Amino acid sequence: MLIDLHTHTQPLSHDSLLTPDQLIQAAKAAGLDAVCLTEHDFVWDPEMVRQLARRHAFTVIPAIEVNTEDGHFLAFGLDRYVYGMHRAAELARLVDEAGGALVAAHPYRRQLPPDGGPLRASASGHGREASAWSEALDHAAANPAYRYVCALETLNSRGRERENQFSQQLCDRLGLPAVAASDAHQASDLGRCATEFQRAVADVADLIRELKAGRCRPVVLK
To answer: How many of the other CB atoms lie within 10 Å of CB of 64?
Structure first.
């Protein structure tokens, strides 16, 4: 089952060019089985999600992308944004109380070294660039917020190859499951990659269970 775990629509995400209907139409055309609505610091009303899903005969799961002091995180299982979520520990506490799950979104952001680094998974780089790359990975891996997540987004369709490579190597260091998502803000973002789940996911409860069990993997679609 192919699910896009990270998408944005207007007007709830002001930087998106997609309406919810356009998002789902693009997702269906790309062969996806479900999408998660992860607006910036905003959770959809459950009834509105149900109406949207019925209108398109498509699985739509509400979630949220939270901007914290330690990075951006996809939170599954919350029903609203509350003050204090900008602190990762508080966000994690609320997600835990709700029986939810956290995924680190685009962990390469503000972490990549300015001097370049490996462009191939097997390359170790040379000299100063290799050292800067390794130090950046060490620094990112020390992020205290990652103790709370069940997976890292290692493939983001809006990220460059080098950025996604950094995320994958970070995920390997942390020994966490990996996921992929479009981070869609326009129709062309959809269908490049997604997360494949081994079992059927019909709602947010199913998704949380499968994420926590690690029964998923990132896949490139085109």
So the answer is: 27
Q: Which among 59, 63, 65, 72 is positioned nearest to 14, based on CA atoms? A: 65
User: pLDDT tens across 4-48, in order?
Assistant: 999 999 999 999 999 999 999 999 999 999 999 999 999 999 999
Find how far residue 42's CA is from the centre of its chain. 15
Among the listed residues 156, 144, 142, the one whose alpha carbon sits nearest the alpha carbon of residue 190: 156
Domain 2-220 is in which class?
alpha beta
Over residues 65-93, the pLDDT tens digits come to 999 999 999 999 999 999 999 999 999 99
pTM of the model: 0.93
Residue 164, CA distances (Å) to 14, 157, 160 in order? 25, 9, 6
Structural contact between residues 151 and 176, judged by C-beta atoms closer than 8 angstroms: yes
User: How many residues in total does the chain contain?
Assistant: 222
Band the pLDDT of 122: cuts 50, 70, 90. very low
How is the chain split into domains, by residue range? 2-220
- With CA atoms as reference, report the closest residue to 38 among 98, 124, 101: 101
Buried/exposed 18-52: b ≥16 CB within 10 Å, e otherwise: bebebbbbbbbebebbbbbbbbbebbbeeeebeeb
